[in-house]
Amino acid sequence: MNDLPTSTITRRCLLQNSAVGFGYLALSALLQGETREALGAPTTELAHLPARAKRVIFLFMKGGPSHVDTFDYKPRLQQDDGKPLPFDKPRVQFAPTGNLLGSPWKFRQYGQDGMHVSDLFPHVARHVDDLCFLHSVHGTNPSHGGALLKLHTGSDNFIRPSLGSWVNYGLGSENDNLPGFVTICPTFAHGGAKNWGSAFLPAEFQGIPLGVASQPSTAANVKYIDNPRWSKDVQRLQLDLLNSMNREHMAHAQSEPSLEARIQSFELAYRMQSRMPEAQDLSQETANTIEMYGLNDPITKDFGRQCLLARRFAERGVRFIQVTHSDTKVQWDQHGDLKAGHTKNAAEVDRPIGALLEDLKRRGLLEDTLVLWGGEFGRTPTCQGSGANGRDHNPEGFTMWMAGGGVKPGYRHGTTDEYGYYAQENKMHVHDLHATLLHLMGLDHQRLTYRHAGRDFRLTDVHGNVHHEILA
């Protein structure tokens, strides 16, 4: 140790030259698996199931849309409007609620099997024969922060990799020039970047945010995508030099997953300079497509642009695309004035979502694109607010739906009770939802793991069952 300059000694050097090198050997063994995973080794090892879907588009309705006012028709709730709930409410509630509140919207029947959809979603209703309704989803947290993290990461109290990061880690992007995970207009509230972050997974698997929920989607662009100071050739020379320096460091430092991830991020950023602007260039779309998504209507233009971008990213091989409908007021969170709030919200998203489903189908993309719609929880069938015209958070039972990507079309899975409070039949916990989504993508949720802090972690932790009943 005497010949080592103390001013430049590293931890690896210390371990290598002390205790006869045993510490260094142990460190190398621990890092070996991480390095292989950071370099993409899991892709061929874990994607061993027959994949029904190649990519995911997650339409996230932040705040908690009311299932009993949208897709979960409850005649008994209408009949008993104003009466007390005839059974106990959950022991843990977000806030007190009163008597039953019937839906102010009519439900009509659509499709071959006469599925009920409320008047809030007439455009989506035309596609019920392509939808797989999940009426028995339930979670564990009645607050926005915990519920958002649970839905996005599988944990409501720890920092864990997001769903999109796990999919990106397991499968990677189909397009080497675009990120594997893009989140359009995400919210920075209630967990913020943790909902699309990679946590302890290598940084290259985290989501790339485009814009923010509090700003128009026209501002949803990648920052610093253009470098006006240097030409592409000069930038390539800079990257090559930086690459050689990093590789030389890695040759001495042995396994270094974080450095490898940094190298890959530099390379991806360079390639994205030409591909990302093209992917976001809506001038290539026809006038009919622009009209179909509602970009000419001030009510639908913002979310319509997000949905159209999602389709463009999907057809270019981005593996996981999230589209968030939110604003600074927690959008779907109607504790009072339910009718006005949900009417406004649905009007903004119904037409664009219907257009997305139609567009994916006519382009042949719906077959291998899994579309997921929903919020972090539903709403109570009991009333809330000074005017008794709102609903509280309800994680005990709510509705999400899937389309395409190998799920049964025109199918209803699970039920809530006759008022819509508790999941009842074929209950699907959030862990089950994640396990099923990964299965559709060709990933076994029990084998999609990453070793961190001395143990193997997975999205579903020690839970989760695949609901094979919804598979086509």
From TrEMBL:
InterPro entries: Alkaline_phosphatase_core_sf, DUF1501, TAT_signal. PROSITE patterns: TAT. Signal peptide: none annotated. Pfam families: DUF1501. This is Sulfatase. It comes from Bremerella alba. The lineage of its organism: Bacteria, Pseudomonadati, Planctomycetota, Planctomycetia, Pirellulales.
